[in-house]
TrEMBL record:
Residues 809-820 have a biased composition (Acidic residues). This is Methyl-accepting chemotaxis protein. The chain crosses the membrane at residues 21-44. It comes from Halorubrum miltondacostae. Residues 752-820 are annotated as: Disordered. GO terms for biological process: signal transduction.
Amino acid sequence: MPADDGTRLLQRLFDRLRGRYAFKIAAAVVVVSAVLLGAGALAVDQVQGSVESDAREAMMSSAEREAQGIDGFVEDMNGYTRRVSSSSGVQSSSEGRIRDELRANADMLPEYVVEVHYYDMVSNEVTVSTSPSTEGTTYTESERPWAVGPAAFANANDVRSFEPYKQDGENHLGFVSPINNVPGKAIVITVDLSDRGALLTSPVDGGNMQVVSTRTGKVALASNSDAILNDYFLIEELSHLKTEVTETVAVDVTDDEQTVVNGSAVATATAPIDTKPWAVVVAAPESQVYGTVGDVTRTVLLLIAISVVGLLAVGGFVVRDVNGSVDDLRGYAEAIEAGDLDVDIERTRTDEFGQLSALFDRIRETMREQIAAVEESAEEAATAREEAESLSTHLETKADEYEATIDAVADGDLTRRLDPESESEAMTAIAESLNETLEQLEALVVGIQDAAETVGERSSEVTASAEEVESTSVDVADSIEEISVGTERQEETLATAVAELDDLSATVEEIASSTDELAQQSAEIAETGAAGRDDAGEAIERMDRIDDEVGHTVEEMRELRDEVERIGEVVDLIDDIAEQTNILALNASIEAARAGEAGSGFAVVAREVKDLAEETADATTEVEELIAGVEASTESVAEGMFAMEDDVEAGRAVVEETVATLETIVDSIDDANAGVQSINEATDQQAESTQETVSMIDEVAEVSAETASEAQNVSAAAEEQTAAIGQISASAESLSSRADELRTLADEFEAREAAAAESGSEVADGEGPVGGDANAVGDGDGGETRAEDAVDEFEFGPTDAEASADGGSEGEGEAAPGDD
């Protein structure tokens, strides 16, 4: 329950906050003030961190600069020491010359150089020095850290510096370098650290800067000479000073018991010295290091307080002004809402509220004008309603008339037209568009009728041509059969001639015994030779007729091949017409589907036309296959006829040679009959001639046999050609039957005589479906062009893809024309 009470309390506060604009502004001021306070706290924290970081950076930078300075001091002293130990004077064996060299070099060294010694590292004795009181003195390493032996140096060029030491109350530091080419001897330069220590000043008031040895933990260099060689006062707190320091670090010492530096916690910064195991340490009270943090914090808090107070003041002023202005505006709105359009609206202000007041004034004037306009519009609306009712009645009447006409067109009456006279321009445009569509549809149907009729006529012509070719093929077969019979008869005659020649040979052998019998036989042989010559002449005449018949048949075969090619073109045309008809039926189905029930009859006819187009396409495909077979057979027969023509020419040549031979035989028999008295003398020669004649007749007989065989082959090819022509004739008759069916379906549409006459004139001019003559199939103005033009002119509306984009279910169910 307490939770519910708390929720209800919050809800009441929220509702009250939403109910007054002043509360919203007050809440916004409170939120902004809280944000400012939070941002101020964050800024204070960031400023504190930034100031502390800057202070640490300043201390670390100061320590690093001093470490670099000490590095430079040590390097300079190492260079001075090495220069003196390398001079030629100190390599002498004369102490006087060595003393002079040391004094000369001491004059060129800095003022903080105290002494220059010539030191024997073996005996630990100062042999020669710029300070005569030290000559002959022996030192130990505890007395003088620089009193080391030769083993302390890595090589003759090495230079070393050591820890500070006390001499006569002063803090000194020694630098040692072995002398070249003088074993066991070294040059020692001592410097006073008081001058160099005076340069160590802290960057923070109340702090100090000292150099601490990380080996001993003692102060090696400081502005206060009393601190040198004493333990560094923070050595226990700064544990990193007990090891070699390799990087600059800052550490805050916050031990409550630490009271060394003004009784305050200490901030330190340590920087390593590269040339010696020393480190520069800067230490200062945190109150001095971070003293500016409090000042910055107070300044930021003061700015935040001023910002919050100013924001509250501005918020109060804005709330007061906005509340008064909103109350005035609410009063204007309530008065206008109550219908008081004469309310006094103040328009003296130029700010946003003044603009709103002016807007209320304009709204009041606009409402006055709109009320007057509404009253006027009510009268106009009544008049418009009456006109709309009249127009609606007119449109319903026109729609009924258009529906009756469209129903008649759907039933196949393409002579009907819509009356474009209407009070509605849209109805007039629809009537004109539909009339134009019906004109194109009527022309297309008439074109289909004419194309079907022309296809039927061409199919009849093809059938007649095929029958004529078939008759010619039969004649060719008969002629070849006669050639075969004549060739066989010729072969028999040649056999008889061979027998007669055999008798002649026997007679020649017996001629010596009976001259009278020889004369009689010679006369009989002369008569037989004449008969053979006549037979040979007749054979030549028959061969001439065969040659003519073969040439005529070859020409007819060429014409037949051309006719078959033209039939193929006609079939291609019919196939194109069927495809266009199929597209037409598809588009008609789409239009019928869009027309709904009014186009159901037209849709039935469109489906019939589509089915007929598909059957026609199937029939043309079969005819194309048959024509392909006929073309192959025709080519085969043509090749056989061409070969037979060559064989007939060869046979004719052989027969001519036979005739020539027979004439020679007849002449020889005449000569034999005339020279019967001298036959005894020429018996032997005549016998030889007779044998040669027999050989020639045998050759003629062989040629005749080959001619008979080729004639039989040609006869068989002619019979195959006759069978192929029969198949062409049957396919043409089937095509003619399909064309009759297409024409019968197209005749179901009733077209005007003018359209039919126009279509007929186009056919007569060679622009019909198939052209104006027998060769129109290959022309550019043929039926294929006419059918394509008719389809291109007749636009049935959007394609299937456009119908699908419009969301039509009928268009989505139809296949694209290219898919049929």
